[in-house]
Write a structure and sequence with these properties.
The complex is a heterotrimer of chains A (326), B (290) and C (242).
Chain A lengths: L2 H20 L2 H26 L8 H16 L5 H25 L4 H21 L9 E2 L14 H23 L2 H11 L1 H6 L4 H27 L1 E2 L1 H5 L1 H14 L6 H22 L6 H19 L4 H10 L7
Antiparallel strand pairs in A: 1-2
Chain B lengths: L3 H32 L6 H19 L7 H23 L4 H23 L4 E2 L8 E4 L2 E4 H23 L1 H11 L1 H6 L4 H23 L4 E2 L3 H16 L4 H27 L1 H13 L10
Antiparallel strand pairs in B: 1-4, 2-3
Helix pairs in contact in B: 1-5, 1-8, 1-9, 1-10, 2-4, 2-8, 2-9, 3-8, 5-6, 5-8, 6-8, 9-10, 9-11
Chain C lengths: L1 E10 L2 E11 L4 E5 L6 H8 L7 E6 L2 E2 L5 H6 L2 E3 L12 H9 L6 H14 L15 H14 L4 E5 L7 H16 L3 E5 L3 H7 L2 E6 L2 E6 L1 H5 L2 H8 L3 H6 L1
Parallel strand pairs in C: 3-8, 3-9, 6-7, 7-8
Antiparallel strand pairs in C: 1-2, 1-4, 4-5, 9-10
The chains are: A mainly alpha (326), B mainly alpha (290), C alpha/beta (242).
């Protein structure tokens, strides 16, 4: 790590810590969402970026996490903090199951992407139909804003929690870049046959990574449910969440430590910029689609021209590192 | 026990819907068969075509059925240009990349529709919407029957075009052996663009046939994309016969699923079929290889 | 050490390998030659677990490994390289080799040290920081070798490591392979470059149309009429002798 990088990291960390004291509340909220999106993006990045298993249905893990902890709380009276690890376990289990089925059948590339989408859709329809999720009505968590309930009166705490999640996810990704497990994932992404020849049990490693990714993403689902105290099948399992995770990672730089964070920062800026444009042009009544259009175009440009995402620009300019585009 | 007449009506309704699905799926399977790309934007482009039909009716009073030639032509040109400007440039290389490019197209299309057309559900109230024809014990809405027949005629026309015309022969040659086709002097890139255009043209036709009995929202694309993929995977990627049989099977599955499981849960059949086929018989019913 | 008995493998109706048998003894360098399309690579793939043989048996050190998946065979001490090189394009040469080196231990420091040692063994010590995609053909061939070697094999299956190299590069890599063998690794190689076969191999097997047609010393093989005909066509042996 060069001194410049270390300096940037320390500065970024310090800035994020004092940030909520310097800005109005709505900006704290925006940054909270930014860190949260970076976190769930990182969960996508671990399987989609490092291991190269592109998923179109990561919302399945997000939704399983959100519903597990919410049901445990609302229906079974669990404490939200205790329900959190349970939801991660469920997310991991679903990841493990989907991986075992899909990879046993030898699904790769686009086919894997599409089957994850179908799994998310199955879960969405089930959540819409069965009794214990209250169907399309969705589920409300009773507001009781005490820290021991995983609910915070002051938005600063939820901001710090999102920030902490983001840091944890960065540490996990960092660990992947310097461990045998991570090296094996990259080998599988780059060339599965060569990986097998070199003694890697490709199937098992892929199952492991989707389990890890599913558990992380489910943790994000619980966080989301605790922040908004409401979930329904479309929020939890809809394609929007799946696409959001994929987008921030692809745009920021798939398979890099900081890719999802950079993508999330970019998404946040685009959101705010379009909000600003929209306020100047009254004909634009709806801001969200405009920023997604910009993001869709960025996705295409990045896939076509900058396969390592914005991260590679950053790496080239700031770190002076040479990046290869294969 | 459900009354057999209701089941019969359900099957017939499913077959009628299936006719239009066939059209959608034939477009998707053609694009896959010739270009070897998975066109994730298929549903979103169908949604755009449906809006085109809607606005032709709303602004100019054009009947959806009369709009067929305009919308088919427009969709073909749109597809051709989209391929030439965007998709063709990236369609060689890793298959996830082209999947992501077409995902980008669908994100832009869906959100552009939301931005410009708003999120409301739009329908076309054609004067003949309420007319019913009796078929045995079943009563079938006239527009559905008309659409069904038209879809079959259009599929037959497309089949004839592929079998007889020079362009159709060139498309089949490229699908089978693109290097060989290039060697005998076929402009392969142009054939790719034409094939993509025809695939989208099928969506234009499907849009005209859907609108008299269906509705459109910016989310319609997503609703259709999984259905279209399920049909194509069920029939076997790249197989026309498969797309036809798959279209009818899925239409009936959806209709009977709705009948027995209810409107909500009934849709689960499609996703489950998709998953099961990919897991256990990825070549589908008529596909040659995965 | 390696024992292949009556191994057959077909694709569709085509018999790619037909009851082929071969033996490799500890410490040998053995070559497998044959005309294009003879089924050499298929035989390799079946031995290394990439294709499940239809019939026949593969044993390593007396242990039956027929039909085991490649990673288990690799862990048992036999590793293959690919004729069409398969570098991990977007990571460095060091990281490429480390993937192999991690087989022995999850320790990053150890893997790194081992990778660097192996790189020196194949003459890549100056290219450790290059990206896989940036290597020349010769570099890719060496990387294939290095990655396989880093898994610590007792038996190395090399699939045409010299194809596409120029004569001076071939001389270099022959020396590298000799060094590897001297360090105690047994080698079975598929090769087209006869000069390399003669200078490396103690014994040669000849595969033609899926069948093992001859076995012997390089010199003996070169004079075997059946082998000559396999390469040059029917009747060629007679013409050459005349």
């Amino acid at each position: 790590m060069t001194p410049l990088v270390r300096g940037l990291l320390v500065f970024g960390f310090a800035a994020a810590v004092i940030y909520p004291f310097l800005v109005p509340n709505y900006l704290v909220n925006i940054a909270m969402l930014m860190f949260f999106t970076a976190f769930i993006g990182q969960s996508w990045n671990i399987s989609g970026g490092f291991a190269g298993q592109t998923s179109f249905g990561h919302a399945v893990f997000f939704g399983v996490g959100a519903y597990t902890s919410t049901i445990l709380q609302v229906t079974h009276g669990w404490n939200a903090w205790l329900a959190w690890p349970a939801s991660m376990a469920m997310g991991g289990a679903v990841g493990c199951m989907i991986a075992m089925l899909s990879f046993r059948a030898g699904l790769k590339g686009s086919y894997f992407a599409l089957i994850t989408l179908a799994f998310a859709e199955v879960f969405r329809i089930l959540a819409n139909s069965v009794g214990f999720t209250r169907g399309g009505l969705g589920m409300l968590i009773k507001a009781d804003q005490r820290p021991e309930n995983f609910q915070f009166k002051d938005s600063i705490w939820i901001y710090y929690l999102a920030f902490a999640l983001c840091i944890v996810s960065l540490l996990i990704a960092w660990q992947l870049t310097r461990s045998r497990f991570g090296a094996r994932l990259v080998a599988i992404r780059e060339n599965e046959d060569a990986a097998r020849a070199l003694g890697i049990d490709v199937f098992t490693e892929k199952v492991k990574v989707l389990t890890l990714s599913g558990a992380m993403c489910a943790a994000g689902g619980t966080f989301y449910a605790q922040k908004y105290l409401y979930i329904d099948p479309s929020i939890a399992f809809g394609i929007d969440k799946s696409v959001e995770m994929l987008l921030v990672t692809m745009v920021g730089g798939a398979g890099t430590i900081f890719g999802p964070l950079i993508g999330s920062v970019a998404l946040t800026f685009i959101n705010e910029a379009t909000r600003w444009v929209a306020s100047a042009v009254p004909a634009l009544k709806n801001v969200q689609p405009l920023s997604l259009i910009v993001y869709g175009i960025m996705l295409m440009l990045i896939v076509a021209r900058l396969p390592d995402g914005l991260m590679s620009l950053f790496a080239a300019k700031v770190l002076g590192r040479k990046q290869r585009h294969a | 026990m459900v009354d057999p007449a209701i089941i019969l009506a359900g099957v017939l309704n499913g077959l009628l819907a299936g006719g239009i699905y066939v059209l959608v799926a034939v477009g998707l399977t053609l694009i896959y068969g010739v270009l070897h790309i998975i066109n994730f934007a298929h549903g979103s482009l169908l949604m755009l075509a449906m809006y085109a039909v809607f606005f032709l009716w709303r602004l100019l009073g054009v009947d959806p059925y009369l709009a067929l030639p305009i919308v088919i032509g427009g969709a073909f040109v749109f597809g051709f240009v989209l391929y030439r400007l965007l998709i063709g440039r990236f369609s060689h290389g890793k298959d996830e990349n082209i999947l992501l490019i077409t995902l980008g197209v669908s994100i832009v299309a869906d959100n552009a529709a939301l931005l410009f057309f708003g999120g409301d559900t739009e329908t076309i109230a054609v004067p003949y919407a309420g007319e019913i024809i009796q078929f045995g014990a079943a009563f079938l809405p006239l527009p559905k029957v008309v659409s069904f027949v038209a879809a079959l005629v259009l599929c037959a026309v497309l089949g004839l075009f592929m079998a007889r015309s020079d362009t159709g022969k060139a498309i089949r040659a490229v699908a089978k052996e693109r290097q060989g086709a290039r060697l005998v002097g076929i402009d392969v890139e142009k054939i790719f663009a034409i094939s993509y255009g025809i695939g989208i043209g099928c969506l234009g036709a499907a849009a005209c046939l859907l609108m008299p009995t269906f509705y459109v929202t910016p989310q319609s694309g997503y609703a259709f994309v999984l259905v279209a993929f399920t049909i194509v995977v069920l029939g076997g990627m790249g197989s026309f016969l498969g797309a036809a049989v798959g279209g009818f099977l899925i239409g009936v599955t959806e209709s009977l699923g709705g009948l027995f499981l209810g409107e909500q849960l009934g849709q689960i059949g499609i996703s489950l079929i998709f998953i099961l086929i990919l897991l256990f018989k990825p070549t589908g019913l008529f596909g040659s290889k995965a | 050490m390696l024992e292949v008995r009556e191994l057959s493998k077909s694709f569709g109706g085509l018999k790619a390998v037909d009851k082929a048998s071969l033996d490799v003894r500890q410490g040998e360098i053995v070559a497998l030659i044959g005309p294009n399309g003879a089924g050499k690579t298929t035989l390799f793939a079946a031995i290394a677990g990439f294709h499940r043989p239809d019939t026949g048996r593969v044993a390593l050190d007396g242990r039956d490994i027929t039909g085991l998946p490649p990673h288990k065979i690799c862990a048992a001490g036999m590793v293959r390289t690919f004729q069409i090189t398969q570098p991990f394009a977007k990571i460095s040469v060091r990281d490429n080799i480390m993937v192999g080196a991690y087989l022995a231990s999850p320790d990053r420091g150890l893997a790194r040290k081992l990778a660097e040692a192996v790189a020196a063994q194949v003459g890549m010590e100056d290219q450790l920081d290059q990206m896989g995609a940036d290597l020349t053909v010769a570099g890719r061939k060496r990387l294939e070798l290095a990655r396989a070697l880093a898994t610590g094999p007792r038996l190395l299956l090399l699939d045409e490591v010299m194809a596409g190299l120029n004569p001076s590069e071939i001389v270099d890599i022959v020396a590298v392979i000799k060094g590897i063998a001297k360090a105690g690794v047994t080698v079975l190689l598929i090769e087209h470059v006869m000069q390399a076969v003669t200078s490396l191999a103690e014994r040669v097997y000849v595969l033609n149309q899926g069948r093992m047609i001859a076995e012997g010393t390089p010199a003996g093989i070169a004079n075997n009429p059946e082998v000559v005909e396999a390469y040059l066509g029917h009747g060629a042996a007679k013409v050459l002798r005349a």
